[in-house]
Amino acid sequence: MAHRAHLFSLRIGHALREACFSDEPYSVGRLRGDVLAGIAITVGVLLACILFVSEMAAMTKITDITNNKKLIDADIPDRWAVLKINGPLFFAAADRVFGEIAAKMTARDGVILYMDGVTLLDAGGVAAMNKLIDYCAAQGKQVSITDLQFQPLKTLARAEVAPRKGVSVFYSTLDEAIHQFN
After folding, report:
1. Which residue, among 109, 103, 116, has the nearest Cα to 76 in the 3D structure?
2. Pairing mode, if any, of strands 110-117 and 61-64?
3. Are 128 and 89 in contact (CB under 8 A)?
4. Using an 8 Å Cβ cutoff, are 82 and 112 in contact?
5. What is the distance, to the nearest Å, from the Cα of residue 39 to the centroid of all Cα atoms in its chain?
6. Rounded CA gap, 59 and 117, in Å?
7. What number of H helices and E strands is found in the chain?
8. How far is 51 from 3, CA to CA, in rounded Å?
9. CA–CA separation, 32 vs 19, rounded Å?
């Protein structure tokens, strides 16, 4: 899709250049053509940015790995789930991802978020995560967050996100989070 936006902007720019440019170096037609070409290029770049962000947001996925014996070597309580998040958690994806997690938690007492595949967390991601934690607090549910990479961990530290007693807890590894039940 981004490729189509780029081609679209090139076609508009070419058409405007052909229609508006004259051979005289400082003519009104040339100035108008420069302005219109600038507008066309700007529109094309903005369109490409929007398409790029939507494609990046679509890359972020949630997978239920509760019954994956390769990753989970202990029993998980019946009303708990282990969800793996893969992809960047930035403003365009985070609300959707954490909203899906909240929807999956309606019949659950808690969830372990296995975040080793999260390479990026921005302020929008932190806000969406805090919204999920607030939802869990209001519903009497728990969330365990595990396997954070360096950048998301640094972002959470800068935002002063801390464990909340009885609601949220952070673990270094998935094994530590799983063995909280034993």
Report:
1. 109
2. unpaired
3. yes
4. yes
5. 30
6. 11
7. 6, 5
8. 9
9. 10
Side-chain-side CA neighbours of residue 8 (13 Å)? 14
Burial (0-12, 13-18, 19+ Cβ within 10 Å), 19: exposed
Number of residues that this document lists for the chain: 182
pLDDT digits (tens, 9 = 90+) for 2-53: 555 555 555 655 655 555 555 555 554 555 666 777 787 888 888 888 887 7
Other CB atoms within 10 A of residue 116 CB: 15
pLDDT for the residue numbered 73: 85
- Which single residue is written with the structure tokens 């991601």? 125
Q: What is the CA radius of gyration of the chain?
A: 24
Consecutive H or E run containing 14: helix 2-20
Three-state secondary-structure class, residue 81: strand
